[in-house]
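Q: Give me a backbone?
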Amino acid sequence: IYLARFNRSVLVLDHGSGRSTTHEVNENYLGFPKGIAARRLRKLGREQAERFGAEFLDCRVEEAARSRAGYRVTAEDGREYAGRTLILATGVTDKLPEFENKDVNQYFGRSLFWCITCDGHKARDARVAVVGADDQCATTALQFLNFTKHVVVITNRPPGESELSRRKRGHLKAANIRLYESRIGPIRGEDGFMRAVVLPDGRRLKVDYMFNQQGARPNSLLARRLGVKLDADGYIKVDNEQRTNVGKLYAAGDVTK
């Protein structure tokens, strides 16, 4: 939007996947008192950018390389596009749990979420399963006590393979939060809304919402190939102006952590 308003020629190549394409209704953005569906917000943002002259192509970028004039990117259909400046806003891929009997994407944004700040309020007095196997997951589970007393933690790993410290285990126990060191089996529910989680040993846990705390992987392969500096987790390093270490190459959004 800003580049187009500053009379720059702007081309956005977008595969159309990621968190902004889920079923989520976002209720923490200023100006939308009734909330707004992520897909609707995405559509409105595109229309706004197009009104100022930005162009969009729905495609996946397979390669990006330096050129004499700046940068050249190759789409999945083999076509090439050139620009003096390149901005990578490739986001992250969430490490979602796999359900034995359901497509996880049916639930993502309806009863499966990843951010307590964005969606924790939806779980008031509801039954919540927090999925993860480290201390950060335990901290998130404890924070859910602000909304409900019906909280459990499922590691989604075989017994003995979690990274929970003894200290955090003690905190969970003191707060009466049950810890299940087990994989997730089948999900019971319909139309994207959960009713229960079945563990491999047959135990059935009643659940209304699941919050995924297994982390995400940054989509930084293109950046790596271009020689961009990444942190230890693969996120793109940028300065206060969103500049990378490579000239005229910027990065924005979740891929910069």
Summary: The first helix runs from residue 2 to 5.
